[in-house]
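User: Sequence recovery, please. Input:
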């Protein structure tokens, strides 16, 4: 169910994760969502994404705990891009060995640009009759 074109958005703010999904799908990316780290581990178990957009402060399992468990199970199976409103997003990203970061609030174009550095949009399906 997954490909290296898919992005896993791990964010407990449903409105924000829905918005990010809409923007990324419109840009050609396949998107899966998880509301916390435990749900994200289940999504990864089902198939390794091409990129993980990871919020840090979530219920049940936060971003620090998720990143530690993800690395334990899959080493560097997918790049992680931290999305956080915390002061010094770069430091938060370094704490979990992330490959990049986005500071909240962010411009939606910045999300597409950041994701594009790690993942290519899914190829368009062939036109009927070809």
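Assistant: Recovered sequence (130 residues):
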């Amino acid at each position: 169910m997954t490909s290296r074109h898919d992005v896993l958005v791990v964010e407990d703010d449903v409105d924000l994760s829905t918005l990010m999904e809409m923007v990324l799908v419109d840009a050609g990316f396949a998107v899966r969502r998880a509301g916390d780290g435990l749900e994200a581990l289940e999504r990864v178990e089902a198939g390794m994404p091409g990129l993980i957009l990871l919020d840090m402060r979530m219920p049940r399992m936060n971003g620090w705990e998720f990143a530690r468990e993800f690395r334990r199970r899959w080493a560097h199976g997918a790049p992680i891009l931290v999305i956080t409103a915390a002061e010094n997003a770069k430091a938060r990203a370094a704490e979990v060995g992330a490959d990049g970061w986005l500071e909240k609030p962010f411009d939606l174009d910045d999300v597409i640009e950041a994701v594009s550095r790690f993942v290519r949009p899914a190829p368009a399906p062939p036109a009927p009759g070809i």
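Residues 71 and 77 are 8 Å apart (CA to CA).
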